[in-house]
Amino acid sequence: MKNFWLNMPTEIFFGKNQIEVLGKQLKKENVKSVLLVYGKGSIKRSGLYDKIISLLAENSIKVTELPGIDPNPRISSVAKGAELCRENKIDFIIAAGAGSVIDCSKAIAAARYYNGDPWDFFIRRTSVKKALPLCAVLTLAATGSEMNGGCVLTNEKTLEKLPMGSVRLKPRFSILDPVYTFTLPKNQTIAGIADMMSHVFEQYFSYPDASLQDHMSEAVLKTVIENAPVVVAEPENYEARADIMWAGTVALNGLLELGKEGDWATHMIEHELSAKYDITHGVGLAILTPNWMKHVLDEKNCYKFAAYGRNVWNITEKDDMKAALQAIEKTSEFFKSIGLPQKLSEIGIDGSRFDEMAESALKNSRIGTFKELNKEDIVEIYRMSL
Amino acid sequence: MKNFWLNMPTEIFFGKNQIEVLGKQLKKENVKSVLLVYGKGSIKRSGLYDKIISLLAENSIKVTELPGIDPNPRISSVAKGAELCRENKIDFIIAAGAGSVIDCSKAIAAARYYNGDPWDFFIRRTSVKKALPLCAVLTLAATGSEMNGGCVLTNEKTLEKLPMGSVRLKPRFSILDPVYTFTLPKNQTIAGIADMMSHVFEQYFSYPDASLQDHMSEAVLKTVIENAPVVVAEPENYEARADIMWAGTVALNGLLELGKEGDWATHMIEHELSAKYDITHGVGLAILTPNWMKHVLDEKNCYKFAAYGRNVWNITEKDDMKAALQAIEKTSEFFKSIGLPQKLSEIGIDGSRFDEMAESALKNSRIGTFKELNKEDIVEIYRMSL
Question: Could you list the pLDDT tens digit for every one of the 386 residues in chain B?
Fold first, then answer.
């Protein structure tokens, strides 16, 4: 285990009707004027928007709104949000929505105090020195953004999609009510499930091994695998929605990566697909993951895929390489069983831009720590996914 | 899953030489005058005491010392520590030692601002409204006190041992360097292992079931079971010591009990043994735990013991009751294999005070949520443990 620092300041209010704490929490923070960031209007249809507005009114907190955040959130929304914060003396941001809304809100929180182009945070031209405080009201179990300091934005001009992060961007608190996820369309539910599982894989398949962190990763995967078919069949099953929601948070709140160096290759090469084709991130991950596994598997690392197979899928095969291959097959079958696409061609992507995307992926950093990927590796993983 | 609130403010600095952050962290808190609380001198033999003193001197922080804290810490030490805090204008407490030292420091932190008898916190006559901030420098993997707000103290006059807790008593930060545990005597190492496993059992065998929390409990148990024989055989194995140390923290930092109502019966009836006979808490737990399991096991709850057996011990038995009995047997065998006593008679305890202890255990609260225990149940568990 490598040395680590754990800092988990985000308070979590989990369960039915936890939205009721919002006013009290904002009062504790002495908030006067909030920016309410949300997406395409699902919070209006569900009644969450009205609830938030009434809680803010009860507490005499001024509201400025930034609606319309895209599923792959754009850097132009960040510039717009930062401007609204300056104009309206915003002292707190409420991100009400899925990971895209929370990520965009984090970037706004940082951009508020930066006079240059917000994209500078993502191309490492600057770092977050100060940020507005924020909270999340989560409506989709997927990204884990509700309890970490990371965000991923898309530059719609350059068609790049890049991550950045800071402890200063960790939400002050997040409200997680599984009931908000009852009305999600199935395609969003299952894309979220692929996203959280991918987060676990990126941290589990990494060095050094760490006994507790790796067993906890297996625990998250088992929880997701047990509950995913239930939420697909019974979208209003509270217990299963709650288990999935909490699994999504733990999958990326830092606990699984302590003392390890995550791989994140699949995410980096998926971001190219989302940036170029505006596809759903979780769908891209579900397609790429089994092919990443097959491509990187070798004699040296097969013990880890075998451990995954035995501890998560109860595979009894004694030979590590055989158990590893069975585990990868189980992963594919699982994604298929809950209705996720298996191939890029199913979602309208052909091979015409593989070279360009591989080059772009490698432009800003090296890719992969469990096994480093060069351009040929990335193109091959795309090709296997066609 | 019940609704829950997660609040985890304690920062963790984990790994080799992390003590070096101490001065910087205290400076960040603007500390001028600390109370250094420690035990019977092991931190002097290991060099940790000298290191702390030199870091404080480098940062011009005044030190008042409270040495000599007992393994079952006494309420008289709390009164003494609170008095030292008032006299010396202490603004921060450093607890350097095992759980006993950290627990005592928490009670001092609370008692500093309370003019009555500090035992009042433990008999629920008052609650913690204000407390001095504190940090822990951990030297024994066991209690998890380094990342939670609880403490257990002994009243040496009444021979009671009781818990209390508050979010205000969570350490600001804790320093966890596995190297400090290299020189522990074997009996302390294994008692710590029994303690952390018992913490997991108290939360795992509880209602309602919660998929992720329960699988994470299994993850902690697997980590401990895999690494315990290694630290017993190779006390200076860094990786195994690190895995055990982190498991001890996660076992009781709140994550495993989220949305559940822990049982804690075994702890409550062990506290009577520690209070009356001043035995090592972990040893008492190791003796009682398998007998508590056997006593509460029934047709309704055997599914949970069976899940424990299958997921932690790889038991393949299909019948729940049979799998449950095998799992309990495995638990006994494991404690024995690492050298823990199996019977109260081995540690000089006879049956003469069982009635008195059972009555005392029930004096302050009901015992057990997984299965509530009455006086006869408690006496029976003691008797089975003789």
Answer: 999 999 999 999 999 999 999 999 999 999 999 999 999 989 999 999 999 999 999 999 999 999 999 999 999 999 999 999 999 999 999 999 999 999 999 999 999 999 999 999 999 999 999 999 999 999 999 999 999 999 999 999 998 999 999 999 999 999 999 999 999 999 999 999 999 999 999 999 999 999 999 999 999 999 999 999 999 999 999 999 999 999 999 999 999 999 999 999 999 999 999 999 999 999 999 999 999 999 999 999 999 999 999 999 999 999 999 999 999 999 999 999 999 999 999 999 999 999 999 999 999 889 999 999 999 999 999 999 99
Closest-approach residue (CA) in chain B for A251: B212
CA distance to partner chain A, nearest, from residue B250 (Å): 9
Strand ordering across the sheet containing B173-176? A62-66, A33-37, A92-97, A134-138, A173-176, A4-14, B4-14, B173-176, B134-138, B92-97, B33-37, B62-66
User: What distance in Å separates the CA atoms of residue B279 and residue B201, rounded to the nearest whole number?
Assistant: 21
Which residue is closest to B12 within chain A, CA to CA?
A6
- Rounded to an integer, what distance in angstroms lies between the CA atom of residue A289 and that of residue A238? 29
Q: Could you write out the DSSP letters of every residue in B202-221?
A: HHHSSBS--HHHHHHHHHHH
Asked if A252 contacts A144 with a C-beta cutoff of 8 angstroms, the reply is: yes
Q: How many CB pairs under 8 A join A and B?
A: 109
Least CB–CB distance from B3: residue in A1, A14, A243: A14
DSSP calls for B153-173 = EEETTTTEEEEEE-GGGS-SE
What is the ipTM score, two decimals?
A: 0.97
